Structure to design on (89 residues):
């Protein structure tokens, strides 16, 4: 049981976090980019025009991908709990 075991666990935790956050943030970033281009093209500087679509897309991403997000977290947690005997001994 060396430090490389804990580094591997930490690396896999960071990988799961990056994947799950990206699934929520990337659609919001793309919609924000489209809205920003639209605002620049039409010279409309309304803050609610940029905030509301991003909010709705973020909520939709959470709603659509929520089951997958919970499943990934459950799989990771079960995997960590199954590794406890190997790490402790």
């Amino acid at each position: 049981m060396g430090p490389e075991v804990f580094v591997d666990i930490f690396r896999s935790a960071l990988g799961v976090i990056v994947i799950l956050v990206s699934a929520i943030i990337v659609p919001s970033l793309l919609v924000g980019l489209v809205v920003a281009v639209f605002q620049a093209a039409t010279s409309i500087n309304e803050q609610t025009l940029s905030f509301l679509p991003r909010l709705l897309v973020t909520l939709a991403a959470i709603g659509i991908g929520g089951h997958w997000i919970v499943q990934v977290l459950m799989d990771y947690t079960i995997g960590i709990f199954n590794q406890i005997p190997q790490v402790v001994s």
Q: What stands out?
A: The longest helix spans residues 47-88. The chain has one domain: 3-88. The mean pLDDT is 91. Residues 3-88 form one domain.
